[in-house]
Design brief:
The protein has 464 residues and is an alpha/beta fold. It has 2 domains: 189 residues, no CATH class; 249 residues, Rossmann fold (3-Layer(aba) Sandwich). 53% of the residues lie in helices and 8% in strands. The chain contains 15 helices and 8 strands. It has a 6-stranded mixed sheet, with helices on both faces. It has a two-stranded antiparallel ribbon with strand order 1-2. Strand 6, helix 12 and strand 7 form a beta-alpha-beta unit. The longest helix has 30 residues. The chain starts with a helix and ends in a 9-residue tail after the last helix. The relative contact order is 0.09. The C terminus is likely disordered.
């Protein structure tokens, strides 16, 4: 039985290749069944994994969450094909359409992965924009394959006209493409921190679960909180709280330490700034970045400030997930993730009124809606459905951290002006490197804009 299934799978894949190569194919060249649809979907998943590896440009590791994402995409394709078959009154196409779509789309995926892998490694970073036309060319090829697939599956259907065929292609191809764009699934292969290299570099550093660290951390947090200076009467004071969530890469620690230095200088927060960092190099001198410590920091700042006058700037930097969780990680500790809801609750409990919240992470745009109000500025490094860049192995700083804090904020005391400068710089860099634009987001509440514009002085924070 297995031999029969494999023989039929080879036949389906061979027919799919002929479809992609624009050769003559008949519907009877395919062997259509539920079992074959499952097998072809598995092969298509492997093809998607090859694309992930090709675009990663470096070491990758398997991501189990990607299996659920691929299964979701196949389920969406099958559902759309079923709806098209029902609309055209062609029940036999309900299985045939997704099977042929997947079999015929495999070759473009594999070729695209190979070309991107070859050119991506050959081209310098500044020339990766040349891959963008290539992506559009392969998208056009896939559209032609989709057009042929519909025609092949519906051969012999007299009622099929060009308009109906175009509608079927638009519904299936356009529908799956739109959903994948708006609600991207996790990749099967992702570019991780180099765990082995990290372990080698930190072998002689204290381990976070060691008695030495566990004993000293409560004191470090207490000293950091009590060292925060009280507000200076008669002025609008600014406080800064930083949070670097992932211990596996130095890039987030680098971002946070550099950001604190710049903010202390430009926004006059020296003595009123505090950072929480997960990193083996800082466990004996800096409080850990945990949700509990973040709440404690915000609560302490809330008690020190005049809630009607003072401003609090909070910067969070880490990896982010597609469901908008900020990654908090320091193995072997089991740490709570920071979500938009938990962060909003922490602000509410702290009593902080006027605040600027800056979130640098993939999919960080998902923090805007839960946090925005009239008294708040929210800035994010990416749209809610887009990744940001610069957190892979070997980077010293994230794209957003470098552009916003180390470049833009050094030229202006206005956070929104700095954001505009950083957003433009990031867009140029992503275009040069052929990356999907991250599209950093900003929300400025009416009350905080009016308050800070009215009180703006050359030596204090100004919002445009």
């Amino acid at each position: 039985m297995l031999r029969i299934h494999l023989h039929r799978l080879r036949r389906n894949l061979a027919a799919g290749v002929r479809v992609a190569l624009l050769r003559r194919v008949h519907r009877l060249d395919f062997r259509i069944s539920v079992g074959q649809l499952v097998l072809v979907a598995i092969v298509a998943m492997i093809g998607a994994g090859l694309v992930d590896i090709a675009v990663a440009r470096g070491a990758v590791r398997f991501n189990a969450d990607g299996i659920a994402g691929q299964a979701r995409d196949v389920a969406i394709l099958v559902t759309l094909c079923w709806l098209v078959a029902a609309a055209l009154r062609a029940p036999g196409a309900a299985l045939g359409l997704p099977l042929v779509f997947l079999a015929a789309g495999l070759l473009p995926d594999v070729v695209f992965a190979g070309v991107v892998a070859a050119l991506g490694r050959a081209l310098p970073d500044g020339s990766r924009w040349l891959l963008t036309p290539l992506w559009w060319a392969f998208l056009g090829w896939s559209l032609i394959v989709a057009w042929r697939s519909v025609g092949i599956v519906l051969q012999g259907e007299r009622r099929l006209r060009s308009l109906a065929r175009a509608g079927a292609v638009a519904a299936v191809f356009g529908g799956t493409l739109a959903i994948a764009y708006l609600y991207p699934s996790a990749r099967l292969w992702e570019q991780p921190a180099d765990d082995a290299a990290l372990e080698g570099e930190t072998a002689n550093l204290p381990r976070v679960e060691s008695e030495e660290v566990l004993a000293v951390q409560p004191r470090i947090l207490y000293e950091a909180l009590t060292a925060l200076e009280e507000r200076e009467p008669g002025n609008q004071n600014t406080y800064f709280v930083g949070f670097a969530g992932d211990a596996k890469q130095d890039v987030f620690r680098n971002d946070m330490e550099a950001a604190q230095d710049v903010v202390d200088e430009r926004l006059k927060t020296e003595g009123r700034s505090l950072v929480l960092i997960n990193n083996p190099r800082t466990v004996l001198d800096t409080p850990l970045a945990t949700l509990t410590n973040l709440r404690a920091a915000l609560s302490t700042v809330g008690r020190l400030i005049d809630p009607e006058e003072d401003l609090v700037v909070v910067y969070l930097s880490s990896h982010g997930t597609s469901d908008h969780q900020l990654y908090v990680n320091f193995p072997p500790l089991q740490l709570q993730q920071v979500t938009p809801t938990s962060l909003a609750r922490a602000f509410q409990e702290s009593g902080i009124k006027w605040k600027v919240v800056i979130v640098s992470a993939c999919y960080s745009g998902g923090y805007v809606e839960p946090l925005k109000d009239a008294n708040t500025v929210v800035m994010t490094s990416a749209r809610s459905d887009r990744t940001s860049f610069g957190c892979e192995v070997g980077r010293e700083f994230t794209y957003f951290g470098q552009a916003f804090f180390q470049e833009a904020l050094k030229t202006t005391d206005s956070l929104t002006a700095a954001f505009d400068l950083a957003r433009a710089a990031i867009a140029r860099r992503e275009k040069d490197e052929g990356l999907t634009p991250s599209e950093p987001q900003i929300f400025v509440g009416d009350a905080i804009r009016a308050k800070l514009e009215r009180r703006a002085k050359p030596t204090t924070l100004a919002l445009r």
